[in-house]
Amino acid sequence: MEVIITSDRTMITNHHGKEFLGFMTTSPPLFLPESIWMRLAAPKMSVNERGEPWQAPYGLRKVEAALLDAGIEAAVIDPEHIGKHPEARVVAIGHHDFFALGPPSSEWWVLTKREPVNARSFRRFMESKQMEYFRRKGARIIVGGPAAWQWLYKPELIDRWRISTVIDGEAEKVIVDIVRRALDGEELPRFVQVGVDGVPSLEEIPLIRKPSVNGLVEVSRGCPRRCRFCSVTLRPLRHYTLEMISREVDVNMSSGLRSVILHSDDVLLYGSYSIYPNEKALIKLHELLKSKGVSQVGWSHFSLSAVKYAEDEHKLVSRMSGMLGDYYKGVEVGIETGSPRLAERMMPAKALPYDVREWRNVVVDAFSIMHEAKVVPAATLITGLPDERPEDTLASIELVEDLKDFRSLIVPMYFVPMGLLRGESWYNREPTEEQLELMRVCLRHDLRWVEDIARWYMRDLNPLARYLLSLFISSLKVAARRFLEPPLERPHLNRS
Ligand code: SF4
Prior knowledge:
Layout: E1 3-6, H1 34-41, H2 58-69, E2 74-76, E3 90-94, H3 105-112, H4 117-126, H5 129-136, E4 140-144, H6 155-160, E5 163-168, H7 172-183, E6 191-193, E7 216-218, E8 220-221, E9 238-239, H8 242-254, E10 259-263, H9 279-291, E11 296-299, E12 301-302, H10 304-314, H11 316-324, E13 329-336, H12 340-346, H13 359-372, E14 375-383, H14 390-402, E15 409-414, H15 433-457, H16 463-483
The structure holds iron/sulfur cluster.
Iron/sulfur cluster binds at residues 223, 225-227, 230, 232-233, 265-266, 303, 334, 347, 350.
């Protein structure tokens, strides 16, 4: 093997087939010892004789495919099995959150004052005997993935762990050249920033050769809304053809996977080059999954304005959900703020085709639509945005209260400077009274719905994981009681 592609345990896992359990890796262990927390959030997967896990993160599978297509011998290897390939001369490592600096890890860190398990696990991996072996023998270590920017804040670790190159951005077009140069013993650039001109065109995106975690397949990249705080803003929009999607679904299904997670920055804009959902493309996409006998489908992201428009104009959300079967289907959505003032400044196109000043109504309508269609959103709210005022946070609190009747989970996250706001300062202070109240309102909302959602979510979990998750939820409810009282006395906002 020339190239090992890997990561730490919080990444090389399928979270018991439950993607949302992956969020637990962004927190320190709560109410449970770390070893048990890790078994619940990031269990080991079975591996073959070469140490290849049977599923691997989609981004690592893309790097693997790019290298294999170029004739380079490479494979994703479980972190505990990289020692089976002492001859490897390159170790490529990807991660969503190397140092727990991204959302929501950074927030859990500030609130609990304890380092989240993803950062701990990554450090343990980098300081493991196996990695020390590869460093000593002079193997080139290349890091990348969505959290590559975090290495800019950790230059001392680049030296200590002898990282040769950090690749920030879509890697498929550059990885082959960097790895070839590494294998030829050439000097490598320390930092590669893949800009808009360097991203692969649709034809240059390789298709995965081996199964991805929980059947995730990409359908599009990019988003036209250009929210200022979002890194996706800098990527051009590309849609996979149905043929490409079909081939990747087949790779997963031939390995025994029966679930699919459709991944895009906004799945509802699949096949569209505007902010209007493309009814024909979306129906064809879901018919394709149905024709393949996929047993369970989830979506990575929907934009809330697209949910409202798609349902109001074409009954699309209920049709898509209905044609896949009568079960709850998960999706991530971004509320980001309930403040019309901040929405106008930070995400002027997020509500399109509706007026951004109507954002609150768009959010409420979209949640109502998803509730009816048995789509369960896990929603994010950002707090600590530049120029945020107490009244903005109060507006977010009121919006969360307006969502109380809709089955969902809502997580407030601290602002992390990304996208067009990359130069802004980090928000990592103690929460203000208003921010604490926002956290309380979200927690109250989540506790209201967590058991209904967990009943569905846990139905096919193994008994041990089901027991541990129930234990965690019960402990959370007890601990939450103290945090939830007393509520903040606050002025009622004039919403007109
Ligand atoms: S709608 Fe979502 S994906 Fe698109 S730019 Fe805004 S935050 Fe990013």
